[in-house]
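lol forgot to send this yesterday, sorry. struct tokens for the thing we talked abt
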């Protein structure tokens, strides 16, 4: 690959040939970098500003260059397999343009100045990689594959922030987002969107690793119903952290997902489709199951800072299956409201304990008895297989006979705590759950 060396001899305009040398120290280049040349920024301090859209064969900066590279609202693209590697001591401003790579690496782990993301879009396809400076943020990240092509994007180690993440396959193409190799921490401040064509496939592969995800916006799957979206989960976590209402629909994604964590100071997390996960921890904020099915393969926990939506029909029609232990708790003066105007199901395989809850119309008869007998919980009626304080102790093992409380709730036959069983996983996320 030929090279052009930035000097800024005449001005700060990227497109002026006299600002470039054909070799270190001269002679002057006959043209600025194009699709067949790599632009090298190795020394000096003159800023470089794009004056139009540019396609180049690569971009490499070194620590001896002290200037700023500014896209200034224009688009910067790399030829196929071109790398953009930034290690200069100045800034890199993306502005409002598009930075486009097809099969190359985008790296700025060694950048000494600021990465100004602006309102830009970074668009990657082909065999690509991102190696970020940990803690930096991009604006929108778009990952695509077209026709019958394939895109594999590897995300390097450290923390990477994104305003929004969109993954799209068209035609019969496939996209693989590889977070398994380096187990990064991905912070998506806004929305995660998967767009799958009827003959396409998207796979998020983090199996065998522990990447962490934080999502502050909505999760949606768009495109043809015949398309395939798969989530190969790792041992990290997937957290809802936004300070507004978030709507998550994972129903078309084959899973299960990782450990789900709800940690929201403001707004609510609303399910708009079924979900399966390895575990569930609700630490802070409001959750609305939206009448959908949830399958938790491991332990299911709601801590005293977690709340359900205040609507009295919050739990209507929903079904929660727990393959491990259940531990749910409100707090004194603010019981956890598990209320409904019609029936909902809770099936637990392992030990199940509830404290400071207010529950109604819950059918837990298919699993372990829910122990709410410490005197802190309220029986709102219509509950099956719950033990409240006003019921006599049932003894160890299965409840031999039904006991009816004054409100009409019933404790029925259940499995012994910690037993092994299977629960049905909703939709495309089906699979056995073992206690």
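and heres what i got for the seq, position by position
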């Amino acid at each position: 690959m030929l090279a052009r060396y930035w000097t800024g001899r005449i001005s700060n305009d990227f497109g002026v040939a006299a600002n470039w040398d054909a070799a270190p120290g001269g002679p002057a280049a006959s043209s600025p970098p194009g699709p067949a040349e790599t632009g090298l920024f190795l020394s000096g301090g003159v800023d470089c500003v794009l004056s139009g859209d540019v396609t180049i064969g690569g971009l490499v900066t070194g620590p001896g260059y002290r200037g700023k590279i500014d896209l200034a609202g224009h688009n910067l693209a790399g030829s196929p397999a071109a790398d953009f590697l930034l290690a200069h001591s100045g800034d890199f401003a993306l502005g409002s343009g598009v930075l486009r790579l097809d099969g190359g690496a985008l790296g700025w782990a060694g950048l000494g100045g600021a990465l100004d993301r602006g309102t830009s879009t970074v668009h990657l396809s082909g065999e690509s990689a991102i190696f970020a400076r940990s803690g930096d943020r991009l604006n929108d990240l778009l990952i695509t594959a077209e026709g019958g092509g394939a895109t594999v994007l590897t995300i390097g180690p450290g923390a990477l922030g994104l305003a929004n993440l969109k993954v799209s396959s068209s035609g019969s193409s496939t996209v693989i987002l590889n977070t398994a190799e380096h187990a990064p921490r991905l912070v998506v401040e806004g929305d995660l969107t998967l767009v799958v064509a009827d003959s396409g496939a998207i796979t998020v592969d983090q199996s065998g690793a522990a990447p962490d995800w934080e999502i502050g916006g909505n999760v949606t799957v768009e495109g043809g119903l015949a398309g395939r979206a798969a989530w190969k989960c790792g041992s990290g976590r997937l957290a809802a952290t936004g300070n507004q209402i978030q709507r998550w629909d994972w129903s078309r994604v084959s899973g299960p997902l990782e450990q789900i964590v709800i940690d929201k100071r403001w707004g609510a997390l609303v399910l708009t489709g079924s979900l399966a996960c390895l575990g569930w921890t609700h630490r802070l904020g409001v959750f609305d199951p939206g009448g959908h099915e949830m399958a938790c393969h491991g332990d299911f926990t709601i801590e005293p800072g977690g709340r359900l939506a205040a609507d009295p029909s919050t739990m209507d029609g929903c079904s929660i299956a727990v393959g491990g232990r259940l531990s749910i708790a409100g707090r004194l003066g603010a019981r956890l409201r598990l209320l409904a105007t019609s029936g909902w199901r809770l099936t637990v395989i392992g030990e199940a304990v509830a404290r400071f809850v207010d529950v109604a119309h819950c059918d837990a008869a298919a699993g372990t008895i829910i122990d709410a007998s410490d005197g802190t919980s309220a029986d709102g009626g219509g509950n099956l297989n719950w033990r409240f304080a006003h019921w006599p102790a049932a003894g160890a093992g299965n409840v031999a006979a039904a006991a009816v409380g004054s409100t009409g709730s019933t404790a029925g036959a259940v499995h012994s705590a910690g037993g092994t069983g299977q629960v049905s996983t909703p939709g495309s996320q089906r699979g056995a759950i073992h206690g």
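Residues 392-408, 411-425, 427-435 have pLDDT under 50 and may be disordered. anyway ping me if u want another try
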